[in-house]
Amino acid sequence: MIKVRLYRPFDVKRFVEALPATTKRIAVLDRTKEPGAIGEPLYQDVVTALAEAWPQGMPPRVIGGRYGLSSKEYTPAMAKAALDELTRAQPKRHFTVGIVDDVTHLSLEWDQAFEVEPEGVTRAVFYGLGADGTVGATKNTVKIIGENTPLHAQGYFVYDSKKSGAITVSHLRFGPKPIESTYLIREADFVACHQFEFMEKLDVLALARPGATFLLNSPYGPEQVWAKLPREAQEAILAKRLKFYVVDALAVAREAGLAGRINTVTQACFVAISGILPREEAIAKIKDAIRKTYGRRGETVLARNFAAVDASLAALREVQVPSRTDSVLTRRPTVPQAAPEFVQRVTAMMMEGKGDLLPVSAMPHDGTFPIGTTQWEKRSIAQEIPIWDEAICTQCAICPLVCPHAAIRMTVFDPKEMERAPAGFKAVPWARKDGSPLEGMLYSLQVAPDDCTGCGICVDVCPTRSKQVVKHKAVNMAPKLEHLEAERANYEFFLSLPEVRPGFDTIDGLRGSQLRMPLFEYSGACSGCGETPYLKLISQLYGDRLLVANATGCSSIYGGNLPTTPWSKNADGQGPAWSNSLFEDNAEFGLGMRLAIDAQRDLAHALVRELRAEIGEELASALLEASQDTDEQVRQQRERVRKLKAILPQLRFPEARRLLAVADSLVVRSVWIVGGDGWAYDIGYGGLDHVLASGRNVNILVLDTEVYSNTGGQASKSTPRGAVAKFAAAGKSVGKKDLGMIAMAYGNVYVAQVAMGANPVQTVRTFQEAASWPGPSLIIAYSHCIAHGIDMTTGMSHQRDAVKSGYLTLYHYDPRLGMGGADHPLKLDSRKPTVPLEQFVMKEGRYAMLAQSDPKRARALLNAAQQDANARWQLYEQVAGVHRVVTPEGSAAEALAAGGKAADEAGDPKAPDDANAGGKPDATRSEETTS
After folding, report:
1. Residue 66: strand pairing partners
2. Average pLDDT of the chain, as a whole number
3. Which of 379, 332, 334 minimizes the C-alpha distance to 162?
4. Which of 569, 783, 821, 930 has a CB 3.0–4.6 Å from the CB of 575, allowing a cystine?
5. Which residue, 578, 447, 459, is CA-closest to 520?
6. By 3-state DSSP, what share of the chain in percent is helix, strand and coil, each rounded to 5?
7. Tell me, what DSSP letter sits at residue 881?
8. Across the strands, what pairs with 26?
């Protein structure tokens, strides 16, 4: 084998010298695909090098293959398949290995059972959940083995690009010789399943070799667990004669104050079972690793982790495996039977982690995948779910508003529907006597038990408490297993209820928005995410006519990641059109959407005017002039467009065919440009500023986590002074850019800063005002993040505290209030700070760790940050008190139009020289087709 380490400049002489003189055939493997090229790059260079420099006679025959595309496995068996191909009388000139290509038939078959791993290597596989600590614990185990034993160790990991909550599989090898296996483990000596719910949907024992050890994190003890396993798992344990251990890692972690972080528990159990080191020495090394990993977070964090380690071994129990299977449970299908055929056939394979086994023919030929597929995923990762107490609920609508995953929802419905409801379904009369169309209907609040992540944010924000039990609220967390089957039935019925969409002129915006079906649901964002509630909100307000230009980042990972996407559609097939772009050009990308829509609308208007007689005066006038400010008006416009599209095929004019192609653009669209602070404040700021200056009707939503959340927590220009982040390890020394104040300088940009947890009513109102403003709007939405080092359960109340301390100021700047100078455009929506900044920021790990490691610098930066907060409030107060005259939208355009008309009348050579300038169609119709 020859490994090319420097690709270009390609050293022809050295390459030819490296080949034995007896070489007859060469297989060149490229890890790339170059569509349209004769062959892949290295293949082409090798062919050229041999043609130019082979010393004598006919050069070796060269064939080229692709491997490892899309991170696919490349195993010794696949390498052997490439070598075997060389021995054939007529080898394939081009081939692929590692995929099943049943379209071009270029793939090579390989022997799945072929193994070359040496004896003496211990192999372990750990199944975990993103953010439960499994990956980190495996990495620490590699360090412990490598630093404290004569053994070599390797960690190899499988996890998708979702945020926390996705399945992770950690592969660990260690042995007396160097580990060079760059592929996954196929047969493991030790298998650990760190989430009990995996047992009912994954074949976690498929990789266990006969006689291996199995460790299960289980809420059931050694006497009860066997009956709780699906029959397939029992059969595998018996057939492979596995040694079986259980530990209630969640209980141990909870008692130690670590909530769902079970990594220290399961790591201690593995080390104890495997016998890598003597038990006492192994525990000491684990604690050393904990101190290195979490030392900067303070002694309290260390003490909790140490307590979890000490309690782990006492909780570890061996299961006496019965001699036969007796379970009445079976492993449930990956997706429900009601899922579409494509989801059953393709998406389900990806969910199972078997996507590499899909043949090429299974992929959509045009690359499109169905939307709204998160509804079939049913991850069921929560340990606890919210249960509604209808007796004390005030129907405030805050809990469904803040739910990061759209897993708790509210609705109203006709009382007659209760005749078909499950026995346990709860509903109460609509409580608000305000004369709205909802009076007399029933209200229900329902959780999706398999889609809830158990973050508890809904309970945190619930304002209603029982008068009898202080801690009891209208929504309370309860063990999922006790309620799972009943809530599954309740949620299925809930989804069957017709959607009620009262107009915002009949109900307040907060409740009205939450009665609407979310068209962004069940995302793979971190449990308790602060970003996704804002996206869910715009999908509820404008989802049936929404276009989203999304900047790469967290929102692209949980928004458009295979195998599933949370962007969905309603019962009429209407939903958001979503597309992702890069950091550096997303604002321009979204502006392009707006320009394209406007161009299509203008063309449609011109064609309607031209075909007015054929369409009908009444319909044409309504299509051109009807308002589209409310849902009902939009519905009426859609009905007019439907009538128009029925008329146009009957007309023989080319203009009719052109109008048919753009008729849907007669329905208003809401364009939103979405991204994080890394995009808006940093890399894409130039483009964002350009779009703000364009005057176009676009809405910009900045999901402000104050850090590059998706790429590991690097500092951005939104990171506040004193916060620790990557590239600001000693605390950021400069303050946060005031993006809102910069945007206000234009005068004609609607600007707002919101925090849903601090003021949900202001948040909903702001989104509605921004969307209604015909020019550019900018909403800076403060989003708490797991990177802040906070308890995500209290993320929304943490936002409220941010406002109280002056860390964050809520406001909105509405240009309409300054038109004519009658009012002040800037309105402050939060009060003067009432608590010191330090009281708030020290609840966050990104500030507390600096106070732990460098108290003097932390104090200096905190003092400066307090001055920043004071100065910012004073500045906003002053600006809010200033009368500002804003030029009405359209005035400049009208002035330009007037000037152009005058120039045209005067014969100005710069004026348009024909009646069709601006792209309007010629008034003369023709029956000939034009292009």
Report:
1. 30, 96
2. 91
3. 379
4. 569
5. 578
6. 40, 15, 45
7. T
8. 62
